[in-house]
Backbone:
């Protein structure tokens, strides 16, 4: 007994000592206030008003200035923000109770009229805001009383709450918009934890803590967003201490940064899937056996390890994990890398090796045309080349036509699309399966109206994504999207390659920061500096 | 003097059709290259209806010639229009970037002239000496190394290893040093080589021998008789360089995050923002015309035989 007790006592003492040490360590890790956070990133915003810019360089800044009715956290769950609660009162109407006592940076109060003003400006302005297309059938808002507002849609719209949590749906100060006119886009006024100070084009944007913020006030005094287009220069700025945070850090240097205690690498699973699209109406890709053969021919592991070097994850389907409605398509089991199976499938479809190794059928060679741009998505050019070589290994000859992004874009949006294959990426920016599955796979969403560049047509999938779009029962929607993805996995009109990772590198002194999976958010309200 | 003034005025008036032609060519080029400003602006998720509505709002649905006429009409009233992507007056965009470009160009030109010309003269006076060999090797290096490489090497040397200068951006004089040196390197090399060959040529002239025979000091011979007569091609090259530096500094501006016109133009081209691009191109074209005019005028000062009368 005695011995046993002594045995037990030692670990207990160690535990107590560890707890005491932990208690000692806690004060050192306590949040400090003050200081300036300097962020370097490759490009300047186009505008700081979501009305004019829907891309990340602007959104990173204004997502700290403007707030939406609903917040979406790092786990992609919804929380009250400027609205404290909401009720679905009819299939086309959601009633929001606003948080009382919230003030804009210009001192004016946040009320139902400001919400109505923001939505009307975005949806009905001349012209409407750049993000109006993302808002689906969102129609506007109606004031019920000072702190109660109804958001209405022209038809039932399942993703309505996630649409209102979009970074673009930040509520703006009506007084400031009217006073500043077009200049509002260079000096936005919202309710967020930071207020706008100065923007010098291609040099910096400066924000400072909003002292009258309704919630926990930001620990940082100031945030400076600097532009450093050159990747190498950005990494040097982090090392010299000129910068505390780097957006788009160099993937090659991440491993070294992780080992070095002076730095920290933060990452989250992103929402963009980069893929090689297949035109399902263009022979021979109208044959599902040929499409499946191409999937079997691609060695995803090799691409992920050697080209992306850990800066991305293998795609698990047509959606990113985390998106509402995501279902793992288990592509690694359905379409494992297997050249033998690829060739067998091609043989079933009537394609047999010709004298030069390229498959032939009735004297016709298996040659596919391919539209690709370089530099739009990380490593898109290298991936196109690698997949091209892998297809050659199973006797498929792919001829790539390289275009600069703007001109490739016009072709993608064109009808007809005369290419068999195309390299593209798609981000589910609303975090709801609707904004991928509906425009990409519904048979009536053909370009130039929609983005069904694969010309995929499956009546059952059409019904499923329509039903899910119109339903406000989120459980039912999840089931419908699951079934749609099961069907897509069988028909496969994409070769999904990778799922983006959102990666940010900081100095170790930057605390309280977490990368947001939505590439447009850069939450800085809780960040503090330990120095 | 009055002659020079008329000459300058006539040249400036001639610039008007040049600029109008430049505007038309830029507009035509952007019309011909594939790519749609509005579709790019609204991005992947935009509906066709939204794209069409915005195109109409911006007046981009009108034919090229109508837009050209409208633009020229605006120009005549001194209005450069609003950037399509940013909805911001182009004048403001230019006012933000133009001083930065001018500052960088002037600094690079000064460095190029102050280093390149003396180096060339010394090489010419002592041809095939070790200095000459070193200078020629340096010139070869300066000419063949791309600025995105020399730029990064300079940053590693003077920002990372010897933490003397900031990594990028514009502000103090310290910010200017690295981009100006990087931009000046190829110009130094070109000026040194040209100076060497033209001074070398002049030093073999009879009047130089005469000057030496008169008993003039070697320095006076080289500077007053040699360099002065070799200056004409050098000034021409400096003028061409000035024009090129203003337009060709995109890479330097990118490496050093210098907020200049080059990056503005690249941004405008990728977004197919023809209004913004027009404004930037007009500034370049005007600067080119002015620099050329200054070079021409300086010929008269350098060489009294070149007269502007008649």
Residues:
């Amino acid at each position: 007994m005695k011995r046993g007790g002594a045995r037990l006592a030692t670990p207990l003492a160690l535990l107590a000592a560890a707890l005491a040490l932990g208690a000692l360590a806690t004060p050192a890790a306590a949040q400090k206030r003050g200081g300036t956070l300097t962020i370097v990133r490759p490009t300047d915003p186009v505008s700081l008003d979501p009305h004019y810019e829907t891309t990340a360089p602007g959104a990173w800044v204004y997502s700290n200035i403007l707030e939406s009715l609903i917040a979406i956290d790092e786990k992609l769950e919804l929380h009250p923000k400027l609205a404290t609660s909401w009720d679905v009162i009819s299939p086309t109407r959601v009633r929001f109770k606003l948080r009382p006592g919230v003030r804009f940076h210009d001192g004016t109060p946040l009320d139902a009229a400001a919400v109505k003003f923001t939505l009307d400006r975005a949806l009905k302005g001349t012209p409407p805001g750049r993000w109006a297309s993302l808002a689906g059938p969102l129609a506007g808002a109606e004031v019920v009383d000072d702190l109660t507002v109804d958001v209405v849609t022209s038809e039932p719209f399942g993703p309505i709450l996630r649409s209102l949590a979009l970074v673009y749906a930040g509520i703006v100060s009506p007084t400031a918009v009217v006073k500043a006119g077009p200049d509002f886009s260079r000096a936005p006024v919202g309710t967020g934890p930071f207020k706008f100070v100065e923007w010098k084009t291609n040099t910096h944007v400066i924000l400072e803590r909003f002292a009258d913020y309704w919630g926990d006030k930001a620990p940082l005094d100031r945030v400076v967003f600097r532009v450093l287009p050159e990747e190498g220069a950005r990494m040097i700025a982090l090392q010299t201490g000129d910068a505390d945070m780097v957006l788009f850090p160099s993937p090659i240097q991440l491993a070294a940064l992780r080992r070095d205690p002076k730095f920290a690498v933060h990452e989250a699973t992103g929402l963009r899937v980069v893929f090689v699209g297949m035109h399902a109406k263009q022979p021979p890709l109208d044959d599902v056996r040929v499409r499946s053969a191409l999937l079997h021919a691609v060695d995803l592991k090799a691409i992920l390890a050697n080209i992306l070097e850990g800066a991305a994850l293998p795609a698990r389907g047509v959606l990113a994990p985390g998106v509402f409605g995501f279902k793992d398509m288990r592509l690694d089991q359905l379409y494992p890398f297997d050249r033998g199976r690829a060739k067998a499938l091609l043989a079933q479809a009537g394609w047999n090796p010709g004298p030069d190794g390229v498959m032939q059928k009735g004297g016709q060679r298996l040659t596919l045309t391919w539209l690709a741009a370089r530099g739009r998505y990380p490593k898109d050019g290298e991936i196109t080349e690698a997949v091209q070589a892998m297809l050659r290994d199973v006797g498929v000859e792919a001829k790539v036509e390289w275009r600069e992004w703007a001109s490739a874009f016009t072709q993608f949006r064109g009808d007809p699309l005369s290419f068999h294959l195309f390299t593209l990426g798609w981000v589910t920016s609303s975090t709801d399966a609707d904004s991928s599955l509906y425009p990409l796979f519904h048979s009536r969403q053909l370009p130039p109206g929609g983005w069904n560049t694969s010309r995929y047509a499956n009546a059952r999938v059409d019904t499923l994504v329509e039903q899910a779009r119109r339903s406000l029962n989120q459980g039912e929607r999840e089931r419908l999207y699951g079934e749609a993805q099961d069907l897509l996995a069988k028909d496969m009109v994409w070769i999904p390659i990778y799922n983006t990772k959102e990666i940010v590198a900081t100095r170790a002194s930057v605390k309280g920061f977490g990368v947001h999976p939505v590439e447009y958010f850069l939450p800085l309200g809780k960040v503090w500096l330990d120095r | 003097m009055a002659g020079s003034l008329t000459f300058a005025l006539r040249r400036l008036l001639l610039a008007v059709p040049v600029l109008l032609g430049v505007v038309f060519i830029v507009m035509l080029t952007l019309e011909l290259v594939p790519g749609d400003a509005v579709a790019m602006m609204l991005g992947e998720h935009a509906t066709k209806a939204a794209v069409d509505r915005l195109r109409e709002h911006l007046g981009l649905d009108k034919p090229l010639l109508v837009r050209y006429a409208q633009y020229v009409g605006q120009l005549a009233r001194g209005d450069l229009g609003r950037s399509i992507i940013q909805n911001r007056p182009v004048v403001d965009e230019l006012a933000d970037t133009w001083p930065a470009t001018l500052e960088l160009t002037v600094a690079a030109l000064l460095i190029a002239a102050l280093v390149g010309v003396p180096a060339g003269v010394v090489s010419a006076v002592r041809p095939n000496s070790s200095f000459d060999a070193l200078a020629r090797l340096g010139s070869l290096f300066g000419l063949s190394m791309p600025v995105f490489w020399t730029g990064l090497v300079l940053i590693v040397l003077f920002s990372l290893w010897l933490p003397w200068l900031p990594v990028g951006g514009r502000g103090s004089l310290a910010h200017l040093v690295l981009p100006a040196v990087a931009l000046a390197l190829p110009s130094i090399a070109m000026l040194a080589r040209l100076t060497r060959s033209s001074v070398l040529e002049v030093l073999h002239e009879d009047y130089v021998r005469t000057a030496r025979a008169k008993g003039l000091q070697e320095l006076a011979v080289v500077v007053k008789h040699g360099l002065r007569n070799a200056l004409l091609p050098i000034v021409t090259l400096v003028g061409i360089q000035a024009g090129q530096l203003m337009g060709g500094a995109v890479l330097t501006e990118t490496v050093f995050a210098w907020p200049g016109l080059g990056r503005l133009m690249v941004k405008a081209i990728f977004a197919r923002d023809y209004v913004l691009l027009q404004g930037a191109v007009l500034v370049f074209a005007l600067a080119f015309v002015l620099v050329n005019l200054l070079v021409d005028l300086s010929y008269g000062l350098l060489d009294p035989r070149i007269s502007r009368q008649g």
User: Anything to note?
Assistant: Chain A has three domains: 32-65+192-262+508-531, 66-175, 270-500. The CA atoms of residues 326 and 526 of chain A lie 29 Å apart. The longest helix of chain A spans residues 2-29.
